[in-house]
Specification:
Elements lengths: L8 H6 L20 H5 L3 H6 L6 E5 L5 H9 L5 E6 L13 E5 L11 E6 L9 H9 L2 E10 L5 E3 L6 H10 L3 E3 L4 E5 L9 E11 L5 E8 L2
Parallel strand pairs: 1-2, 1-4, 2-3, 4-5, 6-10
Antiparallel strand pairs: 5-8, 7-8, 9-10
The structure holds S-adenosylmethionine (SAM).
Length: 223
């Protein structure tokens, strides 16, 4: 097996696989091309059921359409935060309860916890996916919910061999649930997991993943 050539975060984020303007960044809240469909639940219904000030952090939020649509239906004390490498693409300003942050989720950290954290087809472009998952777990409210699309095939050891089973096993031990059928990871309630993987670098030439789109390989060694 040829050894992949691994790149740094800054090189990855400038690579054609990540800085790709043909990605689907336009999912709305409900309907055919939507968060409700990809997540398997209606984020708005979950947030609307909160007793007060619902909060939603959407990582790799794309155009932020789902957040903007949610803002129109939620109370004025809602906190809706989107983070994406690409700046707001919509020509109209976001509603006041929506904050759109232009940053890499690989280095950005929130200053509060959230009732709901989502990452809809965003992990596919992250180098240190497991490091991000460990950090995200601590950003949840005590009864918060995190859900993200995750492809275990993208997790590799230093020599390029598959590390996905070991990754899923470690994530499950840390409290995450993984649905292979839907490629979805879920975590309920805040944790401070320590995953036994040492990040080595990203392979932007890993090729298409289960979505059929080019994705990034995340390479790890043992701690
Ligand atoms: C396939 S799009 C999905 C967008 C949105 N979640 C949706 O479903 O409409 C993936 C998004 O991840 C963003 N992204 C990739 N790497 C990122 C990073 N390191 N930090 C923040 N966003 C990133 C891309 O800019 C892109 O908007």
């Amino acid at each position: 097996m040829p050894k992949p050539s691994l790149v740094s975060v800054s090189t990855l984020e400038r690579s054609t696989v990540v800085a790709n303007n043909t990605m689907n960044r336009e999912r709305g809240l409900a309907g055919v091309n939507s968060y409700a469909r990809e997540l398997g639940f209606d984020p708005l219904a979950r947030l609307a059921a909160r007793p007060a000030a619902p909060s939603w952090l959407d990582l790799c939020s794309g155009e932020g359409r789902a957040l903007r649509e949610a803002a129109r239906a939620l109370p004025g004390d809602a906190v809706l935060t989107g983070v994406d490498l690409v700046g707001p693409l919509a020509p109209v300003p976001a509603p006041p309860t929506v904050t759109e942050i232009v940053a890499s989720v690989s280095s950005w950290t929130p200053t509060r916890t959230y009732d709901l954290i989502t990452c809809v087809h965003g992990l596919h472009y992250i180098g240190d996916q497991l490091g991000l998952l460990a950090r995200v777990a601590s950003w949840l409210a005590p009864d918060g919910l995190f859900t993200a699309h995750f492809d275990p095939e993208s997790v590799r050891w230093a020599d390029g061999s598959a590390a996905g089973r070991a990754a899923v096993s470690a994530l499950r031990s840390a409290g995450f649930r993984y649905s292979a059928r839907h490629h979805r990871l879920t975590l309920e309630g805040a944790r401070e997991p320590s995953l036994p993987f040492r990040y080595l670098g990203a392979d932007p030439a890993a090729g298409p993943n289960y979505t059929g789109r080019p994705a990034v390989g995340s390479h790890y060694g043992h701690p």
